[in-house]
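Folding Query — how this chain folds
Tokens — whole-number codes for backbone shape
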Amino acid sequence: MTTKMTRRTFLKGAAAAAAAVSLSGLLTGCGGDQLADNEVQIGPFIVKVYGLDVALGTASGNDKGAITGKVKLRYDAGGSSWQGGSYNNMFKAVVVDANLMKWVDQTKLYTDKGYNHKSSLWDATWAADQGPTGKVFGFFYSTWGINFTLLGNSLATPTSEGGKEEVGNGIYGDYAVCEGPQPYYWGGTWICGAAGSDNLDTIKDVMQKLTCDEAIMKQITMDTQDYTNNEKAMNEIASSDYKSDFLGGQNHIALFAEAATKIDMSNAGPYDQGLNESFQTAFKDYFTGNVDEDTAKANFETAIKEKYPELTDVVWPA
């Protein structure tokens, strides 16, 4: 959708950062008479626990078992004391935060009212909306999106056809950056070395220089307008007279340097990208009227189980 949540907005939530998050290791559950032996309650959710090896022990009395922060099942082995059994991959449910469904409701309303163009990230409509003929007010972007995507989309004559990155070519110079509703992060630029290489010393030197060398990282920003991961270098540019011609003379690095310190990655996890993309793809059909909400939910469940077979269940907010 052209009007969309930023990745960080998409991720933030009450307890699991507003996204579908795998709760495979940081949970505290408590059992009671109202719950089945293989269920735990997490806030308003009751989640089933899978993969119990009943040969190791069974619940007894009023203690139905518990899941600690390390995801261990505690069970009564028949004696007077409790013993711990580790089940590292036992509990893998996706819990959809209520704030995520608020985003669904809001986006559906905005789509029905024509507040967006029903586009998707990277599609032709989305790109055209950022150019000289576009009528969209603004876009949520990452730092790298400015130079990597937005700048090129702003040009009437692309550089591949002889156009120049300068004022007068399309709407180059008309954009500016403002702080969003909350800090967020969205990926980055990565460099990897090949396993088994016979040039390890060279690889190490290149990787260190491109990721840790203050002077080089400062120059990368000066050359590309991107924000690199060297706080000292970025603060130096932020406090300087640096200006971006593409952004009408704005020093956007100063804005980024201030916002970067507010980013909270404590709820980041390995499933974030896949779950986020699958969720948006599934509900795009709901926003555009091709399926109803229940079908969108079912499609999301199917998509993530195909992508992550180890995620065994999806819990939707009541």
Summary: Residues 35 and 102 are 28 Å apart (CA to CA). Residues 272-287 form the longest helix (16 residues). The beta strands are 21-22, 29-30, 39-42, 45-48, 66-67, 72-76, 82-86, 93-95, 313-315. Residues 1-33, 50-91 have pLDDT under 50 and may be disordered.
